[in-house]
Amino acid sequence: MEILNAVHNIVSVTPERLSERHLDGRGIYYMKDQDMIAVVGWDKDTKIIGEMIADYLELSLEGRQEAEEFCLSSGSDGVTRINELLKEIARIRSCRRQFA
After folding, report:
1. How confident is residue 22, by pLDDT bands cut at 50, 70 and 90?
2. CB 71 within 8 A of CB 79
3. Contacts from 57-62 at CB under 8 Å and sequence distance 24+?
4. Which residues pair with 28 in a beta bridge?
């Protein structure tokens, strides 16, 4: 496991470190129990993806909305799914901070 961003707990892992259901070889997964974002199987792009996720999480609400509008207008299903994941991570973390 390699730490990509310690502030946001973003790590790079091999598929073997994840549960059976994530063994498709590549993806971005949020592990609620560990509050960890795992980037799996992106090879040379892993660090860039980790930076992109951290940048998104550090945006203001208005910035996130602009990013979401861009993702939805791109027409790419993969980009839209990643955008949905990032929104869910931000929502969960925001709720946890409110109740901490």
Report:
1. low
2. yes
3. 57/8, 57/86, 57/89, 57/90, 57/93
4. 39
| 34-56 per-position pLDDT tens digit | 888 888 877 778 888 888 888 88
DSSP labels, 26-88? -EEEEEGGGTEEEEES-GGGHHHHHHHHHHHHTS-HHHHHHHHHHHHHH--HHHHHHHHHHHH
Give the pLDDT confidence of 89-100 residue by residue, as tens digits.
887 777 766 655
Rounded Cα gap, residues 95 and 29, in angstroms: 19
What's the CA gap between 73 and 92, in Å, rounded?
25
CA 6 to chain centre: 13
